[in-house]
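thread: overnight batch results

M.L. [08:02]
morning all. the overnight job finished for the chain we discussed friday. pasting input first so we're all looking at the same thing
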Amino acid sequence: MMRLGAPIPLGPNRMRLFYQGGALIDELRGAKDPADGDYPEDWIGSVTAFGGDRPPTEGLSRVRVDGWEGFLRDLVRERADELVGRDLAHRYGATTGLLVKLLDTSVRLPVHCHPTRDFARRKLGSVFGKTEAWIVVATRRGGAEEPYARVGFQEAIPRERLLEWTARQDVGAIVAATHKFAVRAGDVVLIAAGLPHAIGPGVFMVEVQEPTNYSILLEHAGFPIASDAAHLGLGWEAAIDAVDRHGYAREELVSRFVRRVDLQREGESPLVGDEFAEFFRATRVHLGANGSRDIPAGYWVGVVLEGSGEIEYGAGRAAIRRGDTFCVPFALGSHRLRGGRDGIAVVRCLPPAR
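M.L. [08:03]
and the structure it wrote out:
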């Protein structure tokens, strides 16, 4: 009988998308010749298919467990209690409730937003919307500007005006209406569902999000995106109501949605805490040489950003190093992260807490 008593390696799961990037994912994963291309994202621990006209399993993570090989989505359907725990399975069904991505863009992405759970339930038949968080791992400068993000409208935008901008693709007006912030390694940007946003060129992140692929692209001119796909096939009259059209002062956005992490601090530091716990959580575990951290039982997805070490658990040890990605089943029980001779830094991504 298959056992879920060990960490599960998650190999690369690169996605072909409408924008260019991916060189820093290559570098993290240890590729010989890192380069930007059509595969700027790596979907980790994915139980989310891309959708649309893609093959029905595209986007899903493949795993191998104790002689069994298949998609993580099928594993959670068969063994939800052991993989994610009875409480999570009872609340959300056969899902991990989580999608983690490596995302590295060499171009500016279009201004877009994602639906709330309420909107997704009413219009898309989904229990999940797409709240997300960006954990900035590194940046690179490709021109005169520092790497940046655009988040939220500076002033409230009337519904009819936003519909007009979107219909005629007034990109200048849409982009100019948003706040622009420089970002650097160690920044965490919380993107509440509905909040318009765009990632600038040269930003490499671990993105933690709800397990859907819903995006409403207010701006799509100049990108290879079909106009129907931009509004999820709902029509703009319906889709526009998913957008947070409120105006935000810059200081309010920073206070509510931007966090700064001390990358030198040892131990476990919160990246996404109680404010987003109903959607997901994330921490950064930074251990020095031979340092250790006890981790309670529970499902989580790990991304090793620096160094090497191991996961110690009841039945053995699993070596991990920079560029590795994996998930830890609930059935593993309590365990310990230990740093190797050069220490280790791991992002721990966890499903909804409630």
